[in-house]
Amino acid sequence: MTSSLSISSIEEKYLNQVSGLLPHFSRQLNAYRFQCPYCQLSSKNHRGRTVTPSGCKGFFYSNGNALNFKCHRCGTGKQFHNFLEDHFPSVFLEYVAERDGLGLTGKGTNAPTLSNAAQRVSGRVTAAFAGELVESGSGIEKTDCKAAGDSAATSQNQVISGPIQPAITKLPRLTPQQQAGCSARLAHKVKQHQKLRQRDPAAPYLQD
Ligand SMILES: [Zn+2]
User: Fold this and answer.
1) For the purposes of burial, counting CB atoms within 10 Å of the CB of 103, is it exposed (0-12), middle (13-18) or buried (19 or more)?
2) Cα 197 to middle of ligand 1, angstroms
3) For residue 24, what are the domain limits?
4) Which of 11, 56, 88, 172 sees the fewest Cβ atoms within 10 Å?
């Protein structure tokens, strides 16, 4: 009982921390409402009109002991930690670290363990840096790698309002050989620039 109460209050605390970055964030009677960061990416809707608070379809509902995200436009449903992981990786790690310290992570809880969380974020951040590195080099798979880096960097920068112009809207399907070539190149670049990992927000939580 006590642990479920504190889980709720920890989640609320971190939701408050990011609420300023969620457009039209407001507290409702039994929920929090804001612009859905999964489908309402622009401040304009599909008709070119500005999204109003009543047009926002993203919600956090409390189910008693946890907050769950639900969008009534795209149907996306997420547990609290998954939502943080998708849009605020650094805050996600802080949140898991606090719960980990209280023994409220892992099996039987609604949060991953800290090492698990750090590994998940680390992979994404490393891929983003690798994308930047490849961009400065030359290669056949350059555009594909750059696109992957861009999308990761976008979520990392926590940009959820304003028009987002995708650099490439349609990517050609990669052959297995191209895929292998791309990841081999990334792996090589990442290895060469290990020191860049220090910029990784997951670094303090990772054990080598
Ligand atoms: Zn949505």
Assistant:
1) exposed
2) 33
3) 2-115
4) 172
Same domain, 199 and 157: yes
37 Cα: distance to centroid of ligand 1 (angstroms): 7
Q: Does the pLDDT value for residue 148 go beyond 70?
A: no
- Ligand 1 center from residue 76 Cα (angstroms): 6
For the domain that residue 50 is a member of, what is the CATH number? 3.90.580
6-58 residue pLDDT tens = 788 899 999 999 999 999 999 998 899 999 999 998 888 888 889 999 999 99
**Cα 72 to averaged position of ligand 1 atoms, centre (Å):** 6
- Output the pTM of the full model: 0.60
Q: What length does the chain have?
A: 208
Mean pLDDT, rounded, for 64-92: 94
Residue 180 has a CB neighbour count (10 Å cut-off) of: 11
